[in-house]
Amino acid sequence: MTHHPKPVLGITDHMIGQPDLEADLLGDGVEIDFFDTTDEARFDPARLARLDALMVWGARLGPASIAHLHRCRAVVRYGVGYEKIDLPALAAAGIPFANNPDYGTEEVADHAVAMILSLHRRLWEHDSHARGHVRGWQVHSLSPLSRSNRATVGIVGVGRIGTAVVNRLKPFGFRLLGYDPGQPPGHEKAIGYDRVNRIGDLLGQSDVVTLHCPATAATRGLLGAAGLAQMKPGALLVNTARGELTNDLDALEAALRSGHLAAAAIDTLPQEPPGPHPLLQAWRGREDWLAGRLVITPHNAFYSDHAAIEMRRNAAETVRLLLTEGRLRNQVTE
């Protein structure tokens, strides 16, 4: 085996230019090999074979690449989610995996709450309709429009971000329901929400449903046709978590067209950038039936200038601890 004087860190791709901040944090004692592509097929096997650690942003990582990670001591993701990472293949190769959960919590919670309040107050609908008002003005207020302290918000997933959402919504007076089988008994008492033990109970009682859970075998398609049908008629849906949770755009379109779903605000889509679909075509075209009722942001709920730096620092620090102390924090095992 060829001797390497200093460890080599591979970085597959980067949303924000060159990985200079990572290089500064890790110092001259680490060589960085920047692949600069999200296309896994373009990863050079010889370069993969040299790596002592690998950081991944938006690229997929599957068995074909993992087979060449002969020296790799860990794979670290910049983000929280890891549905593009083949964990069984990594486990079979004996390579541990870590994600990066402790960044952007405030931003995602703020984004979700902004969406909840804006949908609840029907801001986007009023804005869309007001452009066409040539007679009258205040008489065009939309109804129904309830007070916040008469409405129920259901939070699916009450971990870091879900808890931050609960804390932000409390002063508005909403009744808060939470569903999260992963939280210990009494969590609801410490945080301050009403716990429900069945997802159907939350969906049936909530005027607004906001998603804050990972994409797993249990949650993928959570709000497909069957889940949407369980929602209270006229309810609102907010998804700043994972596109796989609301992966049936046909069902979402049908629920919006029928009015069963009053409106939806979505930050994550099942395919990004999104491909062609009638619902997205109606959204892009500002079609009258959908005006102000579907709001889409481009998977940037996590983003602020501060969070982007925090994300990069935290992920690089995970690598630094691995290479200097042999300790892998935020390790994920499935």
Would you give an account of this structure?
The protein is an alpha/beta fold. The chain folds into 2 domains: 124 residues, NAD(P)-binding Rossmann-like Domain (Rossmann fold); 192 residues, 3-Layer(aba) Sandwich (Rossmann fold), CATH 3.40.50.720. Helices cover 34% and strands 15% of the residues. It has 13 helices and 13 strands. The strands form 2 sheets. Strands 8-7-6-9-10-11-12 form a 7-stranded parallel β-sheet, sandwiched between helices. The chain has a 6-stranded mixed β-sheet with strand order 2-1-3-4-5-13. α5 packs across α7. The longest helix has 21 residues. The protein is elongated, with a radius of gyration of 22 Å. It starts with 7 loop residues before the first strand and ends with a strand. The mean pLDDT is 94.
What topology emerges from the helices and strands here?
Elements: E1 8-11, H1 20-26, E2 31-34, H2 45-49, E3 53-56, H3 63-66, E4 75-77, H4 87-92, E5 97-98, H5 105-120, H6 123-130, E6 152-156, H7 160-169, E7 175-179, H8 187-191, E8 194-195, H9 199-205, E9 208-211, H10 225-230, E10 235-239, H11 249-258, E11 261-266, H12 278-284, E12 294-296, H13 305-325, E13 331-332
Parallel strand pairs: 1-2, 1-3, 3-4, 4-5, 6-7, 6-9, 7-8, 9-10, 10-11, 11-12
Antiparallel strand pairs: 5-13
Helix pairs in contact: 1-13, 5-7
